[in-house]
Write a structure and sequence with these properties.
Layout: H1 3-6, E1 14-18, H2 44-57, E2 63-67, H3 76-87, E3 91-96, H4 104-117, E4 121-126, H5 136-148, E5 152-158, H6 166-171, H7 174-179, E6 185-190, H8 208-211, E7 221-224, E8 229-231, E9 245-248, H9 254-257, H10 263-271, H11 273-281, H12 294-303, H13 305-314, H14 319-335
Parallel strand pairs: 1-2, 1-7, 2-3, 3-4, 4-5, 5-6
Antiparallel strand pairs: 7-8, 8-9
Length: about 325
């Protein structure tokens, strides 16, 4: 098989910057174990240079996402970075717990600064764990202020436990009800992924057909972390998977170099980790019932020795199909 046939085209559209592991909250099941006491961050200079290097190496990049930890702890540095991206013609999104909107007037101050900087979207995370640190009312203040400034706002709620009703409370909040139907506001419930066996069980909202999809992250999202690493994705389990860590942020070429012949990543992109896991253990295995998020399956197939051994056994039988699917998708996209 020729190298050219196997070679994967690497043209990321999104740059995701995990600005810091510090956060105003310390949610029990945070995927990066963020908290106020963890101060590891990227400097302003490192983030600014990473943006410059990334778009020079990959002109396909159109969106920069600032996340964490809590990216708003950067204060004016965040607004400056958003402004830089706007001036470069890049769209921007921030992912935040909304702590800065405790008072309506403060929420409006931040919303106006974001508008001036040119931000395109704000994602607010809330739910049972988050609301131990940031109240529902604070999130409502943030949404109200952001939408008033014509900034698209997505609120993502954790899946509730059997005894919590965060979604119902937020959904029926009078100020939120007024915004329902507004094209600048969206409310979404995400499957909750536990990182501790002692965590309270959550309702299962993810349908199997929601798991049986390819991974949109791989080859499309270049990530910089506070560990000064470039990673292959921004999935919930990325810090637990060694193969997703590519190189130092100064080695911008590693994103392409380390992945363009990586068949497993291509397989995950085409089939999705859940479907690969089914091939490894059988589609009736009871373990599948406990998978609520694709990132769980991804961590399992990468980290468990018996899964890795099984991967080596079966991957040759999937090479032709996966490559054919990849080239068909690529050809279709080029045609369109």
């Amino acid at each position: 098989m020729s190298d050219q046939l196997f070679k994967i085209e690497i043209s990321p559209s999104t740059l995701s910057i995990i600005t810091t592991y510090q956060c105003t909250a310390a949610c029990a099941d945070c995927c990066f174990e963020c908290s106020p006491s963890i101060t590891k961050s990227l400097s302003y200079a490192e983030m600014s240079q990473f943006i410059d290097d990334a778009i020079q190496e990959h002109p396909s990049i159109r969106l920069v996402v600032f996340t964490g930890g809590e990216c708003f702890m950067l204060k004016d540095k965040l607004f400056s970075l958003i402004t830089k991206c706007t001036q470069l013609g890049l769209a921007t999104r921030c992912v935040t717990n909304g702590y800065w909107a405790k008072r309506p007037e403060k929420a409006m101050e931040y919303a106006q600064k974001l508008k001036q900087a040119g931000v395109n979207e704000i994602n607010l995370s809330t739910g049972l764990d988050h609301q131990q640190w940031v109240s529902e009312n604070t999130i409502v203040n943030a949404v109200t202020a952001l939408v008033s400034q014509s900034i698209f706002t997505l609120v993502t709620l954790e899946t509730d436990t059997q005894t919590s009703d965060c979604f119902e409370s937020f959904h029926t909040n009078p100020k939120i009800k007024q915004l329902q139907g507004n094209n600048l506001f969206e409310l979404r419930v995400n499957s909750w992924m536990s990182f501790h066996e002692t965590s309270e069980e959550r309702a299962l909202v993810t349908q199997v057909n929601g798991l049986e999809k390819g991974c949109d992250n791989l080859f499309d999202v270049m990530v910089a972390t506070p560990d000064k690493e470039i990673t292959a994705c921004c999935g919930l389990t990325v810090s637990h998977i060694h193969e997703m860590k590519l190189s130092h942020i100064q080695d911008i070429g590693s994103y392409k170099r380390e992945q363009e012949y990586d068949f497993l990543k291509l397989w995950i992109k085409i089939d999705g980790p859940y479907n690969i896991l089914k091939k490894l253990i059988g589609d009736r295995h009871e373990r599948l019932d406990k998978i609520t998020h694709p990132c769980q399956a991804c961590a399992i197939i990468h980290n468990e020795p018996d899964m890795r051994a099984r991967l080596i056994e079966i991957y040759p039988d999937n090479i032709v199909r996966v490559l054919n699917t990849y080239h068909l998708i690529k050809a279709t996209q080029e045609y369109l």
